[in-house]
Amino acid sequence: MKTSPIKIILAPLQGFTDITFRNTFARHFGGVDEAMAPFIPTMGKKKLKLSRLKDVSPENNQIFTIPQILGNNAEDFIFLAHHLHDMGNQTINWNLGCPHAKVANKNRGSGLLMYPEKIDAFLDHVFPRILTGLSVKIRLGRLSKNEIYSLLPVFDKYPLDEIILHPRTGIQMYEGDPDHDAFAEARLLSRHPFVYNGDIRDLTSFQILWKRFPDIRAFMIGRGLLANPFLAEDIRGLPSNENKIKRLRAFHEDLFLGYQRIYSGPAHLLGRMKGFWSHLGPSFRGKGKSLKHILKSESITRYKESAADFFTEGSEFLY
Ligand SMILES: Cc1cc2nc3c(=O)[nH]c(=O)nc-3n(C[C@H](O)[C@H](O)[C@H](O)COP(=O)(O)O)c2cc1C
């Protein structure tokens, strides 16, 4: 194993990795150096949504967290960026990767990747007017991975902090394999530092990437950390003598209580916890039925009964 330090970044996952999740995660697991928060959309008429801003207030985040903005209106972006700066954020990220048609068809997220000239005009206007650093989170393109060739020269014109590249196209959504060859080529064609993102699911998939890209200093992991919260510890070789099931149970309890404090009705709370289990549940051996029960549960009591089944004696975590 090489000894040079690498950075592990928790990816933004809208609906999953909010401040409650991030802080709870930080109390129970190690190995993650920073997080990017799920996107905050620019708001027309310059209205700020306080609940979204609270998510990225530095004093409330236990993991260093970079706010992310989704939008294509430069003035609204600048307005929000100023607010984030006033809250104490030194750097922010621009979402150019969101693949969902609802977003992309309005030329936001990955929808903008087809228009390098619009990105150029946006950055040209925004850069001199914001007080924070700025990075971009991108895919290879919207429709074709060749779009990256027109994008990189545009990014080279601006002093970006870094480029986080998830090497798929927007229309691929999450299908197919991330294109490691395209990632390799893109970073050679850019002057910016690159962060790798996409399908780091386990130690083996990380090691394949690390071997291939020994000079990449930062890796962003999303779904892999939801399915296996020990993954960053494993990557760093952090030893843990404590029983994994016990640690997961404590984490789950803490997360449940955290969401219970926020959500007044059971529907929201159950919705959040079902999302959590949809990633974590399949990582337990032979718990398919219990997972189904969780996902179908309509009362807190039924939910708790089904969740308890994951933490019984003899329960086995696959990682
Ligand atoms: C449910 C979900 C929500 C996501 N929300 C965001 C988001 O708010 N901002 C963003 O840049 N990417 C978002 N992504 C993309 C992830 O950050 C990441 O790029 C993608 O999942 C690939 O990384 P992974 O394989 O490690 O999960 C989301 C992905 C999923 C599955």
Describe the overall structure.
By secondary structure, the protein is of the alpha/beta class. It has 14 helices and 10 strands. It has a 10-stranded parallel β-sheet with strand order 3-5-6-7-8-9-10-1-2-4. The structure holds flavin mononucleotide. Residues 11-16, 38-39, 68, 95, 97, 137, 166, 197-200, 221-224 line the site of flavin mononucleotide. Flavin mononucleotide (FMN) binds next to helix 9.
Can you describe this structure in just a few lines?
With 319 residues, the protein is an alpha/beta fold. It is built from 14 helices and ten strands. α3 packs across α5, α5 (116-126) packs parallel to α6 (147-156) and α11 (244-262) packs antiparallel against α12.
Number of domains: 2
**Major beta sheet, strand line-up:** 3-5-6-7-8-9-10-1-2-4
Helicity level, as a percent range?
40-55%
Rg calculated over all Cα atoms: 20 Å
List the helices and strands and how they pair.
Blueprint: E1 7-10, H1 19-28, E2 34-36, E3 40-41, H2 50-54, E4 64-66, E5 68-70, H3 74-86, E6 91-96, H4 101-104, H5 116-126, E7 133-141, H6 147-156, E8 163-169, H7 180-188, E9 194-197, H8 203-212, E10 218-221, H9 223-227, H10 231-236, H11 244-262, H12 266-280, H13 288-296, H14 300-308
Parallel strand pairs: 1-2, 1-10, 2-4, 3-5, 5-6, 6-7, 7-8, 8-9, 9-10
Helix pairs in contact: 1-11, 3-5, 5-6, 11-12, 13-14
The structure holds flavin mononucleotide.
Flavin mononucleotide (FMN) binds at residues 11-16, 38-39, 68, 95, 97, 137, 166, 197-200, 221-224.
